[in-house]
């Protein structure tokens, strides 16, 4: 693929290839000298129209570990603030001959729009409420690390499903890999029609979703996509859909807890759960670097890394 925009566009073999390449890339990250010449001479532009800590930093580190030249652009300090359109910005950046543009944008589908108009590769670092494919792959890698497989697992996804690009990529990826997904959230945060996807059960209570789950993925309320008035408000939300030591007991005894970050402690996740031994939040972040290395490698035309 020239671009990686959405896991819904990848088949099972392609998802497995990204996961296995990331597994191989991890070896580089554990060395004393964390750098290989694989993408030497390539230029990567990280173009972020929305805030990011994990994704932008790990794409930059991933590019540098593969010896690419990486450049970061934040929209708030770019000429986008002077009214330049996304297409003009992208065409001007392309005139500088980058090989890959990694972009985060608030508009769902912005990457498809650019993909048809630019010849360089585009990787989606999150587009509105549509997809966040690198997060989806790193979530699958983290689950596979724990269980050695993805098929047959009960995975609960709890929270603001409607506005979550992470949920959309997790659902697209995990259902292809044979996991059984159980979704729970307030009715205002459950997208209509999601139950029609194969292997997805929409639950009316959090208990139904996390009962005997192998994996519990908690989501942040995407307030930036909902306006000022939250229904339910954060207090009500936390009461019915927050994960705490008591309701975590409903999941399997050795279940793992995941969250894409940033966490709103005390809302979707109690501090105790966020920091407990079952929490794999920082393992997700660690895996994010290897997954982004794998994505940069594959859009550059790489074959499977075997050593
Ligand atoms: N999970 C995630 O996308 O985090 P950032 O918004 O910090 O990149």
From TrEMBL:
Q: List the keywords (alphabetical).
A: Pyrimidine biosynthesis, Transferase
Q: Recorded E.C. number(s)?
A: 2.1.3.2
Q: Which domain of life is it from?
A: Bacteria
**Binding of carbamoyl phosphate: at which residues?**
54-55, 104, 132, 135, 261-262
Q: Which reaction does it catalyse?
A: carbamoyl phosphate + L-aspartate = N-carbamoyl-L-aspartate + phosphate + H(+)
Q: Which Gene3D superfamilies match?
A: Aspartate/ornithine carbamoyltransferase
GO molecular function, a single term = aspartate carbamoyltransferase activity
Q: State how it assembles.
A: Heterododecamer (2C3:3R2) of six catalytic PyrB chains organized as two trimers (C3), and six regulatory PyrI chains organized as three dimers (R2).
Report the PANTHER family cross-referenced here: ASPARTATE CARBAMOYLTRANSFERASE, ORNITHINE CARBAMOYLTRANSFERASE, MITOCHONDRIAL
Protein name per Swiss-Prot or TrEMBL: Aspartate carbamoyltransferase
- Which organism does this record belong to? Geobacter benzoatilyticus
């Amino acid at each position: 693929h020239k671009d990686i925009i959405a896991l819904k566009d990848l088949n099972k073999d392609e998802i497995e290839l990204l996961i296995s390449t990331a597994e191989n890339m991890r070896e580089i990250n554990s060395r004393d000298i964390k750098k290989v010449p694989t993408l030497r001479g390539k230029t990567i532009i990280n173009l972020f129209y929305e805030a990011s800590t994990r994704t932008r930093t790990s794409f930059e580190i991933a590019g540098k570990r593969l010896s690419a030249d990486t450049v970061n652009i934040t929209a708030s300090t770019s000429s986008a603030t002077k009214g330049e359109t996304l297409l003009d910005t992208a065409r001007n950046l392309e005139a500088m001959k980058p090989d890959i543009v990694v972009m985060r944008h608030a508009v769902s589908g912005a990457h498809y729009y650019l993909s048809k108009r630019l010849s360089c590769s585009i990787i989606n670092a999150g587009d509105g409420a549509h997809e966040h494919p690198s997060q989806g792959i790193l979530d699958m890698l983290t689950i596979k690390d724990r269980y050695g497989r993805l098929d047959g697992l009960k995975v609960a996804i709890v929270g603001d499903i409607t506005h979550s690009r992470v949920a959309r990529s997790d659902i697209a990826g995990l259902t292809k890999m044979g996991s059984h997904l159980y979704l729970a959230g307030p009715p205002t945060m459950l997208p209509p029609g999601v139950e029609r996807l194969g292997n997805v059960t929409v639950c009316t209570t959090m208990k139904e979703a996390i009962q005997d789950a192998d994996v519990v993925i908690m989501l942040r309320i995407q307030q930036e996509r909902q306006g000022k008035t939250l229904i339910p408000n954060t207090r009500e939300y936390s009461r019915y859909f927050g994960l705490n030591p008591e309701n975590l007991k409903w999941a399997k005894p050795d279940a793992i807890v995941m969250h894409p970050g940033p966490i709103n402690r005390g809302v979707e996740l109690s501090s105790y759960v966020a920091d407990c031994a079952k929490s794999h939040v920082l393992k997700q972040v660690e895996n994010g670097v290897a997954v982004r290395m794998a994505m940069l490698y594959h859009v550059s035309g790489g074959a499977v890394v075997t050593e």
